[in-house]
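thought: user wants a sequence for this fold. calling inverse folding tool.
action: design(structure=
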């Protein structure tokens, strides 16, 4: 119970109410003591007035008056004269004197606490002002034991009343907190557990019902989160199914296109002028379709294998990429510039780095070719103590704004007609596998620059 929110509220409420009652108890007991002593002074004054009316009273009557007032002696000061009005033998010497005339509250509280702690029977003197201006001063001597007993009885009644108030208040607060906070929180937790068990089931999305503003805001936020997550999971399932279907179609289509490419190669050897003119275009179209299928299959894999790092000359890798592009596009007036230092060695997976640079250079070539004007593709490399940096720049028209917004998103970041945008997505994923990054450095009318950064250490490598 004490580990629950309502249980802790119950315990804290009892403690706080008891603390408040203790703070009230001390001045209450001091006030009770003051009233008790003032009452004894008033009784003594009444008894002394009887003597003033008839100064020849019997000793028995005088003793009865003192017993009714619960005092031993009464001294009344009137007209600057101090008179012993009533007297009886004292059983013990006077132990303390208390003056109730204009006494500060702190003094009253201190005297009351001292009275409670002192358990010995003793005689005390009490001084006060007579009621109704019946004199200048009244003084009595009395036994302190009845006073202490009355104070203890009053204190116990206060404590029992405090305990009852604490129990009632704590119980009310317990049920209030349970109804207003604990039950709504349990409702939210129950829905979270049910939703976690079957997030695709919309019946488990929470329906806000509490009227407490803060808890209702939490329920609304949870409802929005669950709704968005359910939609995202459904979309993910549909995309996964679609991806599986596309991968199967691409695999079969690639085999078909490979066969068609063999027939196209045979057609190129034909002596028919019309076939010779059409064959290169057919070969290029089939090659693009094969590349698209291969890119789709590569992207559809669950994950890329981790890079197998080794030391490779970067200049040779760049030249290999350039050679492939020169063979793929012989009709474009494009100049390939390799500014990599011939002696520079880079630690990487050569196959994956060829794919990264191949995608970047191919995109640069296609961007220049779309203008119909000559252009240049330049690869530059540099290194420092932390990383290798490779830039791929072209003199093409630059990326359109729409392509920049979704540059590394599959099927959205393409800047060529009919493209899929998978090349940059795959290149960025391979760069992350090396622990590096692929970013767009700049893109405007003068061309586009991509920056590839690969760390020299192994701490950033993906597992």
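)
observation: tool returned 463 residues.
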């Amino acid at each position: 119970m004490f580990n629950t929110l309502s249980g802790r509220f119950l315990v804290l409420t009892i403690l706080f109410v008891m603390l408040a009652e203790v703070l009230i108890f001390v001045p209450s007991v001091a006030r009770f003591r003051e009233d008790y002593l003032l009452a004894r002074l008033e009784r003594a004054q009444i008894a002394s007035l009887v003597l003033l009316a008839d100064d020849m009273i019997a000793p028995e009557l005088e003793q009865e008056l003192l017993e009714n007032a619960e005092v031993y002696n009464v001294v009344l000061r009137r007209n600057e004269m101090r008179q012993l009005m009533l007297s009886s033998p004292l059983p013990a010497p006077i132990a303390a004197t208390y003056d109730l005339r204009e006494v500060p509250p702190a003094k009253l509280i201190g005297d009351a606490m001292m009275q409670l702690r002192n358990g010995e029977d003793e005689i005390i003197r009490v001084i006060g002002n007579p009621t109704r201006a019946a004199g200048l001063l009244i003084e009595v001597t009395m036994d302190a034991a009845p006073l202490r007993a009355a104070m203890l009885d009053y204190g116990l009644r206060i404590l029992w009343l405090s305990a009852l108030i604490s129990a009632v208040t704590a119980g009310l607060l317990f049920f209030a907190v349970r109804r207003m906070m604990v039950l709504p929180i349990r409702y939210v937790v129950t829905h979270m557990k049910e939703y976690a068990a079957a997030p695709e089931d919309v019946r488990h999305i929470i329906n806000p019902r509490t009227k407490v503003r803060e808890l209702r805001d939490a329920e609304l936020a949870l409802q929005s989160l669950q709704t968005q997550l359910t939609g995202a999971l459904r979309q993910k399932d549909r995309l996964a199914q679609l991806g599986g279907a596309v991968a199967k179609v691409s695999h079969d289509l690639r085999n078909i296109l490979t066969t068609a490419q063999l027939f196209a190669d045979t057609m190129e050897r034909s002596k028919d002028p019309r076939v010779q003119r059409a064959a290169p275009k057919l070969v290029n179209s089939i090659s693009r379709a094969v590349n698209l299928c291969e890119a789709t299959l590569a992207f559809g894999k669950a994950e890329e294998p981790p890079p197998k790092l080794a030391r490779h000359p970067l200049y040779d890798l760049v030249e290999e990429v350039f050679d492939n592009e020169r063979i793929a596009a012989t009709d474009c007036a494009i100049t390939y510039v390799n500014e990599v230092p011939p002696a520079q060695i880079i630690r990487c997976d050569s196959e994956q780095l060829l794919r990264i640079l191949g995608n970047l250079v191919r995109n640069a070539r296609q961007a220049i070719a779309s203008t119909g004007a000559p252009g240049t593709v330049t690869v530059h490399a540099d290194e420092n103590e932390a990383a290798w940096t490779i830039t791929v720049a072209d003199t093409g028209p630059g990326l359109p704004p729409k392509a920049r917004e979704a540059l590394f998103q599959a099927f959205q970041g393409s800047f060529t007609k009919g493209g899929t945008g998978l090349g940059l997505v795959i290149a960025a994923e391979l760069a992350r596998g090396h622990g590096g990054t692929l970013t767009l450095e700049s893109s405007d009318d003068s061309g586009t620059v991509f920056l590839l950064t690969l760390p020299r250490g192994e701490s950033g490598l993906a597992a």
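thought: summarizing for user.
answer: Here is the designed sequence. The chain has three domains: 5-169, 213-296, 304-455.
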